[in-house]
Design brief:
Low-confidence stretches: 1-7
Distance between the termini: 23 Å
Mean pLDDT: 85
Length: 154
Amino acid sequence: MAVSTKKSTDYFPCFVADASFMAAYLLNGFCDDEMSDCVKDMEYVIKNNGHIYVPPLFWYEIQNVLLYKMRSKKQGELVLSVSDSLDIIYDLQRLPVYTDLLPDPEIRQRIFEIARETNLSYYDASYVEMARRYNLPLKSYDKDVLKALTLSMK
């Protein structure tokens, strides 16, 4: 289950989403191993003209997830077709996703410190830093990312 350690999107239709959360939303219905509780949060944001905040690396991560799903086989069949992937990319581009600017040296240093202190990858720490900087909930299915957010808030 995706967890947010800050204010609920029920009152504020904006959050930071990592690739695990967005992949679960985008692949819901295509892949039976994806979580579906993210749909409620996404529908609320869309309905209420909110935003989903992501760092620039998100676009590389999510495209890589789609490539992985296209290359994976389940019982001899591809998990995701090329056509399905292109539809997902089209749908993703229509979502209210705000891509943060490339981080300046100060932000990069904060990301590095979070990664070092919490044993996260630099990539994952960028989502934690962004959630802290914008004071937004962080939506993720990665327990280590959510734990790091909790630890970095102390």
